[in-house]
Every structure is written in C-alpha cells, then in structure tokens.
Amino acid sequence: MNAAPPSDQDGDWSIFDTQRVKAMRLVAEHADGGWFVGDDELGAVFTGAGTITANGLVSARSGVSVAELQGLRSRLRAGQELRSVQLGTEASAEQIDWAATLGLKRVGEIPTMTMDLRKATDASAHPFNIRLAGPGDSDKMTQCITDGFELDTLAASAPFANRSFLARPEVTAVVVAGADGDIVSVGVSVHAASHVVGLYAIATHPEHRRQGHGAAVTRGLMAAAREHGATVAYLQASASGAPVYTRIGFIRHSTRTYLF
User: Fold this and answer.
1) Of 6, 85, 77, 73, which Cα lies nearest the Cα of 38?
2) pLDDT digits (tens, 9 = 90+) for 96-154
3) What DSSP letter does each residue of 40-92 carry, written as one string?
4) Residue ranges per structural domain of the chain
C-alpha cells in the first residue's frame, strides 16, 4: 500500500496534473514542428519526441467525457493527428472504444511519482562531474537522451534539448559529464508553478547505467528546484526507473492510463 502524500501548505498535490499539461505545452511551443491545442486541463500536444508520453491528447481532469475528447479532437487541423490519449484515471469502456476508432487500440499504465522536497535528504556526495547545463549543451544532451532511451533518431530526443527550450527561465537542465567531456547522463525540469516542479527526460547512456548517474541527476534537479522555491516534485517512472526514484524518496501517487 502506498503511503499518503504529506500535506502541502503551498497548494493541492493534485496540481501536478495541470502543471504537466503546461510543461508539455512549453516543450511543444519550442519544438520544431510542435503544436498544442486546448487549455491547461485538456489539451492535444505534439512535441515530436519519441515517446507516447510526450505526444497525444492529455487530460488533467478525472471523468472527462468522450464528448469532450471528441470536441477537442475536432479542433485539430489537417495533419494534426493524435498519437495517444492520456488519462489521469482508469479508462472507461466508452473511452477505450472511442480511442479504438482512432486506431489507438492498446492500453498501458505509467505510474506518476511525487516527492515532498521539504523532506528530501541532501546526498550531494558522489564521484561524478555533475553540473547545470544550458543551450550550448544542446547537441550533447540530445545525443545522450537518444542513447539513453534507445531512440532511432536524434530528432526524437531534440524537443527536450532544444536550445530555445533550455533557455527558458522555467527550465533547468542537469548533466553528468564523462572524462572525455561527453554527457553520459541528463535530466530536465520544468518549474511551471510557484511550488511544483516536473522532472523529465532523465536518461543515462547504456554504458554508464547502474552506477548512480540517474540518481545524481535527479537529486541535482531537486536541489535546483528547492533553491527556486519548489516544494513538490513529480515525474513519470519507467519500470527500470521506479526503484531508483523510490530509493531517493519518491512515492507512487497515481497511475496514468495511456491509450495508444
């Protein structure tokens, strides 16, 4: 059984759903060929990133009706197609049937994990060359994300390492540099609300996995977020990443359902 999130004096813990939509919108607005239609609670987004989590119809509200989903889809222009339907709760039979008519016939779940940054322990001692990154690191960050997520093309990683995106004041990037200067681990955060920060694109080159690089990057992002006044962090965890985040102190908050 998951522990209940501690109370947040600065706001509702569920706010991260809305902040995730805002973050995806920010990525899309800076991505080559990216687009966003909708609002902060129900939007359709295309970032061009090589994961379903960064492309599709995204709901930050529970109980959204098929009529609402269809209404948003009807606003898309020619060439703007949905790659997934992302729901914050379990999908209803009606939602599953509707997505199937769009060719989205598979159902998956990805856990959302949260962390009270006010209770995070400082584990800054590590042997890595970790630092903040910026627009000048765009190319090497793109390569690291591509390798880390084992994507087919650099373009599939580019949205989270886009130079103009990295230059945004809401965005922080942390990297681990190898002995040769190449980036071997990377992570990005989007601080779209006063107290909430989302962690994204945490990736480590396959040759450097299981050595603590991802945990160091995550802690670096958390430390930077605390310095900017954030009290809550959230992320979506892969099966391999969830144990790492659990050891750091993240807890499973909810499950997001994907129709793709």
Assistant:
1) 73
2) 999 999 999 999 999 999 999 998 876 666 789 999 999 999 999 999 999 999 999 99
3) SSEEEEE---SSGGGEEEEE-STT--HHHHHHHHTTPPTT---S-EEESSPPP
4) 15-111, 116-254
Which tokens belong to 209? 């996995």
Q: How far, in Å, CA of 53 to CA of 70, rounded?
A: 20
Closest by Cα among 158, 157, 166, 159 to 135: 166
Number of Cβ atoms within 10 Å of the Cβ of 17: 22
Q: Which CATH superfamily is domain 116-254 in?
A: Gcn5-related N-acetyltransferase (GNAT) (3.40.630.30)
Give the distance from CA 207 to its chain's centroid. Answer: 23
Strand partners, 254: 112
Nearest of 192, 227, 16, 2 to residue 120 by alpha carbon: 227
The kind and range of the H/E element at 238 are: none
Phi, psi at 71, each rounded to 5°: -60, -40
Q: How does DSSP classify residue 240?
A: T
